């Protein structure tokens, strides 16, 4: 299995685990993942900038975070409880390798949003086009995805629901700690997600 294919399989497994943590019967709930995609696209456009009547500079970091969120929803649309993760990953790898790019990032983003609105699907080729036009590669996606997913699990495991979770440690918010942990690790490691969690655990204040 190629490195990129393995990354996609890992992300699919993690997405199913997170969805199950939210609702153990999530397959039968009919959640509107496609709607989450186009709403995120609209939010992302504000971060990128689209108003011609004022000066705007793209907030690249925030755009990348929004793309990572969209990928969560895109994976959720592809998981059906029947098809193997490897088969889904192979299809995604193929689509991501044939990126569809319009004239600029905004127009490519609109192709992604249009597929979600009109067809209720995740257009992985347009998603890859957005990645390319913002300067984002599969490693950036994987790093961002695993980090966000793992932090969500970490929060749940440390009292997020009952309010006992501590979000600021040593003058930094948890997502800032997350960035430092992720940057210190090798994304190619087979236990990358586990190492991210352990890195957070090591930094989290003991009571």
Q: Can you give me a brief rundown of this structure?
A:
It comes from Pseudoalteromonas translucida (strain TAC 125). This protein is mainly alpha-helical and 207 residues long.
Structure description:
- It comes from Pseudoalteromonas translucida (strain TAC 125).
- This is dUTP diphosphatase.
- The chain contains nine helices and two strands.
- It is mostly helical and 207 residues long.
- It has a two-stranded antiparallel sheet with strand order 1-2.
- The protein has two domains: 1-136, all-alpha NTP pyrophosphatase fold (Orthogonal Bundle); 142-207.
- Strand 1 (168-169) and strand 2 (172-173) form a beta hairpin.
- The chain is globular, with a radius of gyration of 17 Å.
CATH topology term of the largest domain: all-alpha NTP pyrophosphatase fold
Mean pLDDT: 90
In spatial order, strands of the major sheet run 1-2
Largest sheet: 2 strands, antiparallel
- N- to C-terminal separation? 43 Å
Total strand segments? 2
Based on the coordinates given, report the CATH architecture of the largest domain: Orthogonal Bundle
Tell me the name of the CATH class of the largest domain. Answer: Mainly Alpha
Low-confidence stretches: none
Write down the secondary-structure element order. Answer: HHHHHHHEEHH
Question: Shape from CA axes?
Answer: globular
Count up the domains. Answer: 2
Summarize the amount of helix as a percent range. Answer: 55-70%
Quickly count the helices.
9
- Indicate the structural class: mainly alpha
Gyration radius (Cα, Å) is: 17 Å
Q: Strand share of the residues?
A: under 5%
* CATH homologous superfamily caption of the largest domain: Type II deoxyuridine triphosphatase
InterPro entries: dUTPase/dCTP_pyrophosphatase (IPR014871)
Pfam families: dUTPase_2
Protein name: dUTP diphosphatase
